[in-house]
Amino acid sequence: MDFHSLYQQKRMTAADALRIVQNGDTIVVPTGVGEPPALLTALSEQRRDFRDVQVAQILPLRKYGYFDCDTSEHVRHLAYFLGGPSRPGCQDGWIDFVPAYFSELPTLLDRGYLPADVVFSMASPMDEHGYFSLSLAADYTMAAIRKARAVVLEVNPNVPFANGDCHVHISQVAGLIESEEPLLEVGLPKIGPVQEAIGKYVADLIPDGATLQIGYGAIPDAVVMQLTGKQDLGVHTEMIGDGIMTLVESGAVTNRRKNYHPGKILATFALGSKKLYQFMHRNPAFEMHPVDFINNPYLAGQNDNLITINATMQVDLIGQCGSESLGFTPYSGTGGQADFVRAANYSKGGKSFIVLPSTAKDNTISRIVPTLTPGTHVTTGKNDVNYVVTEYGVAQLRGKTAKQRVEALIGIAHPDFRNELREEAKRMKLA
To answer: Which of 105, 163, 416, 422 is the most buried (most CB within 10 A)?
Structure first.
C-alpha cells in the first residue's frame, strides 16, 4: 500500500479519534503550540464519557473544557510544568504535578515511571516519504510515541516541516485528523527599564562567537535585543522564539563558530509568531530534537562558550534559586533551568546567568532574601549557580565562600533592603 492510501485509510474525525482512548489512559500532549486544539476540544466536549483519563503536558496554552474541577474524575490534567490554564487548578489542589528536570522526562517515560498510553499531537502535512514533522515540540513527545499504544496526529498545513529528530512515519500512526486553524501565536513579553538594565549587564558579558540558550521572559528577551551587534553567535536552546529569529535576521547568529553541531540552530520546542513558524519550514539551519538531547547538561556543555540565561523569582543569600513556586504554592515548574546552568558549568568558557528584578510588588518586597520563603521549591542549587544579575549589577558566585556570596548578593539587592539583609546575614553568622 502506498503512503497516500494509508493516509486516507487512517483519516478520521476528532470524535472518532476519541474511540481510541480507554478509561484509565494517560494522553501525552506536547509543549505549548504543539497541543492539538481540535482533538483536545473534542475530548473536552466528551469528557463525561470517560473515567480516570489524564492529559499530561508541559505548558498548556489554551483553557480547554477539561480544566474543570467538577469533571476531574472523568478527564484531568497532569502537569509536567504549569501554564496559565493549569496553574489555578494546581494551586487549588485538583491538578497534580510531576517534579522533574525537563531533560529527564523522556527517560521517565522510557522507563515506565510516567505513563504514556496515547499521544495526541499537532503535525505538519505528510511528506513524499510518509513522514510528518512534530516541529513545534519534539520535547518528550518522541519518547511517548515509543511507549504509547496509539498515536493520533492533528495534521495542519500551518505547522512547519522541520529537520531533526522530530519525525513520525505514517506506519506509526493510529489515526489522523485534519485542521486548518491558524497556529497560536505568542508575542514577546513587555520589556521595561528594569529588564533593559539587567539585559545590558548580561549582554556586556557575552563574547562574539558564544552559543546561546535563552529562556522565555522579558529579561531574556531584553538580553536578546542587545545582541544584534554581536558576531558569529550560535544557538543551542530549549525554546526557539522570535528573539532568536531576530538575531538570525540581524546577522548576529551564524552558528559558524559552534564546535558542537556547527552551522545549526538546535531547539526542542517553538513558541512565537506566524513569521517564526514560517521561518522554520524546511530551513536547513534549524533542527528540532527531543529534550533529552537538547537539555542534557553534558551534551549541551559540549558547546564551548555556552551562555545560558534563565529567570528566577527569588534567590537566597547563599545562592539557592526558587524559580517555580511562591512558598509552597506551585507557580510554574522545574523546566530546563537547572539543566542549562549545569551545561554552562561543563562548557569550556561557559557562563550561566540567573536573572531577576531586585524587588516585587512595587519595590515593597526584596527578591534577594536571607532564606527562601518557607516551602519554596528549590529549582537550582547553590553549588550550581554562577552569575546572578539584577538591575543593580552582577554577582558572580561560583567558587566563592558563603560570606563572599552574601556580600556579592547584597551588593545587587535593592538599596532599600541592603541594611536589613546585612542584619539578617549577621544573625545567620554569614557576615
So the answer is: 105
Nearest to 257 by CA among 275, 284, 230, 280: 230
Strand-pair category, 53-58 with 26-28: parallel
pLDDT digits (tens, 9 = 90+) for 379-414: 999 999 999 999 999 999 999 999 999 999 999 999
The helix/strand/coil state of 292 is helix
150 phi/psi in degrees, rounded to 5: -150, 145
Integer-rounded Cα radius of gyration of the chain: 22
For residues 269 and 34, the answer to whether their CB atoms sit within 8 Å is: yes
Cβ atoms within 10 A of the Cβ of 256, count?
Answer: 12
2 by Cβ neighbours in 10 Å (0-12 / 13-18 / 19+) ranks as exposed
As given in the structure block, the three cell numbers for residue 270 are 517553538
At residue 77, the 3 state secondary structure works out as strand
Separation of alpha carbons 127 and 155, rounded Å: 12
What dihedral angle (degrees, nearest 10) is formed by the CA atoms of 251, 253, 259, 261? -110
What span, in angstroms and rounded, lies between the C-alpha atoms of 368 and 134? 40
DSSP 8-state class, residue 233? B
Chain centre to alpha carbon of residue 92: 23
Please state the rounded mean pLDDT for residues 171-194.
93
Q: Write down the residue that cell numbers 478509561 correspond to.
A: 23
Helix-strand-coil percent breakdown of the chain, rounded to 5? 30, 25, 45
- pLDDT tens, residue by residue, 210-237: 999 997 778 888 899 899 999 999 999 9
Over residues 104-130, the mean pLDDT reads: 98
Residues tagged active-site:
238
